[in-house]
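Suppose a classmate hands you a notebook page containing two proteins, each written out with its sequence and a corresponding row of structure tokens. How would you begin to make sense of it? This section walks through that situation. The first entry is reproduced here exactly as it would appear on such a page.
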Amino acid sequence: MTAPTPVIPVPPADLPGTLGALRAAGHQYRTVKQELRDNLLARMRSGEPRFPGIVGYDDSVLPEVERALLAGHDMVLLGERGQGKTRLIRSLGALLDEWTPVIPGSVLNEHPMHPLTPASRAQVAEAGDDLPVGWLHRSMRYGEKLATPDTSVGDLIGDVDPIRIAQGRTLGDPETIHFGLVPRTNRGIFAVNELPDLAERIQVALLNVLEERDIQVRGYQLRLPLDLLLVASANPEDYTNRGRIITPLKDRFGAEIRTHYPVDLELELALIRQEADLVADVPEHVLEVLARFARAVRESPSVDPRSGVSARFAIAAAETVAGAALRRAGLLAADSRQGRPEAAVARVGDAVSVTSTLRGKVEFESGEEGREIEILAHLLRTATAETFRAHLSGLDLSGFTALVDDGAAIETGELVSAAELLRQVGTVPGLAKVLDRLDLGDAPTPEEAAAAVEFVLEGLHLTRRLGKDVTDSGRTVYGGRG
């Protein structure tokens, strides 16, 4: 099977088709940085969102990015993994003009009013106002390269094409060059992800691109004034130990911008809601447990602070919990008494599985080897208790503790249906207030009510008001403390 071909937008029919028509329409040539500056200012004045989809950076990172764009600076985003650096870089493309004119067939996306190569200049001089004009969509003006140790100067900048030499062209002829990714993104935005991983001798090749705006290939210089915004991302050098950004290259970036993880719980939750692809309903209190869990892992002294805990950790946790809920719904047969199949609604108990499935996303301190799951399980319990206190503190929950008086017990677990759990608890005083505090509405489904009940039971256990035991079959049994 072949990969699907990306759909290339079709230019509107009313765009000028020749250089003469382009001039008559009043089009003015602008560099990429002028274009970004003008469009950013236009969005600021209109109040239109400038970086849609970027969460948690409104008062910190985004103002610095805007200042860099307005100043016309190339920039490097520095931060731990999973802080949205690549997402932010890719969002810059939306600030470009939707359509920009190009000379058809130009590898360098040359502007008809500003040709670069000798061949294009000759073409413009010969055709004059009759020169055909093509149109390039902004989605095609973004280039990206993940820096890997095997990246070569030829990949980024270009190399001599031996076939063109064999055809009789001389080495001094620009037509002998096969241009790399950077020149091919001329008049656009080019991003280098994980820049320190690029070998230092390869980083040197970017020096002229950033300062002199020309390129050198195989010992001779091409005076091609490249027009692009160069953006790089990097993890802190003291963590990666795989390489560094060489000092002359750091000096050529106009702005170094430090990114960060969400600064508060609400932003963490907003990020999970936006990014997680949930295959089942995950109530807000369960999402909050996972958000608090991610933040607790990030702050734990047992976790290497230099590595960071990616925002993908909390997102993957939410998706895993949703998957557990869907698995339960798929395995449980329709309950004849409720007359319908189990709906997929996550419960707090479904979060237990994330401690084993996501431990590979966390780098622990060297002295914690063998205790990874134990540490994560403790932090998950802490996050659950904090969420319980945040939502249900002050409520009279004696109706739930009374359920296990006289040695009675309540069984729940991964494969216990909502109907079975609710039959065990019956009519519980205080349940309506619990549902209201958890924003589950006046008429929750049985599955939502079961999720609330399980959350209360787990919270009462974590606050030492109920006992808990896990059976060999995987069921969780809540009972009295005695």
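The notebook's second entry, a different protein, reads as follows.
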Amino acid sequence: MDIADLTREASYWAGRNGHLLVTSDDVQQAIAEKVYRSNLWDERLRDLISDGTVMVDVSGEVVGQINGLAVMSVGDYVFGKPSRITARVFTGQAGIVNIEREAKLSGRIHDKGVLILSGYLGGQYADRAPLSLSATIAFEQSYEGVDGDSASSTELYALLSSLAQTPIKQQYAVTGSVNQRGEIQAIGGVNHKIEGFFDVCNAIGLTGEQGVLIPPQNVRNLMLRGDIVEAVRAVKFHISSVATIDEGIELLTGVAAGKRQEDGSFPEDTIHGRVERRLKTIREQLKPSDTSGPDRRQETAENGSST
């Protein structure tokens, strides 16, 4: 039905433009006219981001903050929506708290994606000591339900940044699900997501450094608008495929991820080394202190009491 509608409208514009046969320009005009009739909410969202009402950064560096990408639909019109995702880590043993789930705004697949993060952290950092931390993850300024696991790698990057206390470059937006081994997996709507972030960057101002990280499996699905293709060719916008969390975190932070050494630890000045050091600090803070002391033990013995 969509192709039939597009064919009829392209034929109409060919007649209006004085063409005996439908040309590629007529097809592009038909597509553009359909978008114009349907993209009011898309444009309004872009305006809200541009004036700072909806907070999305496309430059600078921030610890525990990253741009995620979602897909929204209004009728038969589908578009990409950038969203700020944040993570905070602090001393405690509550584990990873999904704020969307606690607020009953999270679907089952999104819940699964967040739970996978615990599996990744446990396998990566808790082989010799227990994993102790409290962390919260949230989609900021999100007032509708969130579902799907395409932001799970994005959430993990924010969490690692907060743990390592290392800032993430805000000129990037990220999409891709992740498994417990840290491998990036394919997602849906890749073209809409890239176009949504490009349009926001273009509205605020392209710097030549902005871009999107996507799973390598989705490269074959790319079918982007002509203006985005030209921006990529002119090195004004970047599309990078990353296969693992290590590849992505290095690109996002500019700091090496780090490989395990022979003694089982990570090099100190790497992302994994910084995370390991932070987790060790949290474990030490959680250790109970011995406040009894010898005087207290002697007093207990003299009183003949025990607990």
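A careful reader of the second entry would note: The first strand starts at residue 61 and ends at 63.
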